Amino acid sequence: MRQVLAHQPTIGIIGLGYMGLATGLAFAARGFRVTGYDVKPEIRELLARGVAPYREAGLTELLLQQVRSGRFSVVARLEDLAKTSQGIFLCLPTPSLSSGRIDLRPLRKGATELGHALRTIKGYRLVVVKSTVVPGTTQTVVEPILRRVSNKSSRELGVAANPEFLSEGTMVRDAVHPDRIVVGTGDSRSRAWLRNVYTPFRSPIYFVTPSGAELVKYSANAFLALKVSFANEISRVTEMLDLSIDRVMEAMGADPRIGNRFLNAGPGFGGSCFEKDLKALIVRAREFGIRFRSGEAALAINQEQSKHVMSLVRLVANPLKGKTVTVLGVAFKPGTEDVRESRAFPLVAGLVHEGARVRVHDPTALSNFRKELERRSASGSAKIEFCESVLESLSGADLAILQADWSEYREWRSEWTRRMKVPVLVDLRRSLDPRTRGALGLRVVSLGVGPGAYNFQSSTGRSVTHKRGKRL
Question: What pTM value is reported for the model?
Answer without folding.
Answer: 0.90
